[in-house]
Amino acid sequence: MGKLSQILFLTASAGRVFASCAYGTHLMPRAEEGEAVPVATFGYTGVTGPLNWAALDSPANNACATGTRQSPIDMVGSVFELVDASALSIEVNDMPDGADFENLGSTVEVITQGGTLSFDGKTFELQQFHFHLPSEHLDNGTSQAMEMHMVWQSAEGEIAVIGAYINIATGEVASASVKRGLNTRSRLFQRQAEANETAPVAGTGAPTVLLETIFSVVDQISTPGTKVKTPPLVMSEVVDLLKAGQFQAYSGSLTTPPCSEGVNWRVSTSKLSVSPASFIKARDVIGFNSRFPQNTPGQPNILMISALGSAAAAVSVAGAGAV
């Protein structure tokens, strides 16, 4: 089979894309209890990567190549509205019995157990949060180590996503904070006051306890399609951090197929942190799962521009060959 034939075969056999970043919403309902964890049929490199997402399932994925408000983007001042956290209401339930943590092939995802986000007269329910490595959005031109996406849905089916950058904590602060955080996590629900007093403050360079807790078991779902129960998860640490910062708001899209637009993005100016050891554990499971930055919202899709450039180059080469 020639290379072109292989590409066409892979494209045709990919079929409907499963396990996108909208998993758990009306765009991609979650599997029923007892059913297998779905595994993504798209990827981030080669013929299943972002350059070919539209062809994997056309016309369902056409927005990936033609949409004019695609995500992620470079978060520079001209493309977003800076919103104070006071303009949003964020509440997320703790998970004292832990949460299901799944490997979808395209990312690893925590299934949440309740939470609300309200702004502009709209209310959204938290469905899940997942991770990208490296960050998908750029922070004024700079990539971050990772990015967490909290995916919310309204009763009307509207989607909102809170993005939070994740940096790598370094030095003695990282190792000391991780040890303290992991040693106390089993007592967080019995002695919440003590935990709040002793846990490191996210955003100060110390690892975020929530992330350390989640990634402590990430190696148990190294195979796509597997899941594990996390230790107890206290969400207040991250929620308080988000409330302490601001949000960069813009209207964009899902960052995975079908690349649906109309997504309400709120990218936090507060950043989470993860220890070097936990980052390596997460990296070894997640691998690379970051879509390349898209064009400025409202501008032509970067793939359309590339296609026009390629066509012009082909014409130029053909013309030169005819001379």
UniProtKB/TrEMBL annotation:
Which UniProt key words apply to this protein?
Lyase, Metal-binding, Signal, Zinc
**Which molecular function GO terms apply here?**
carbonate dehydratase activity; zinc ion binding
Question: In the Enzyme Commission scheme, what number(s) does this protein have?
Answer: 4.2.1.1
Keyword Signal assigned: yes
**Chain ranges of the Alpha-carbonic anhydrase domain:** 40-317
Query: Which InterPro entries does the record match to this protein?
Result: Alpha_CA_prokaryot-like, CA_dom, CA_dom_sf, Carbonic_anhydrase_a-class
Signal sequence annotation: 1-19
Write down the chemical reaction(s) this protein catalyses: hydrogencarbonate + H(+) = CO2 + H2O
Q: Which family does it belong to?
A: Belongs to the alpha-carbonic anhydrase family.
Spell out the PANTHER family in the cross-references. Answer: CARBONIC ANHYDRASE
Q: What is this protein called?
A: carbonic anhydrase
Q: Which organism is it from?
A: Apiosordaria backusii
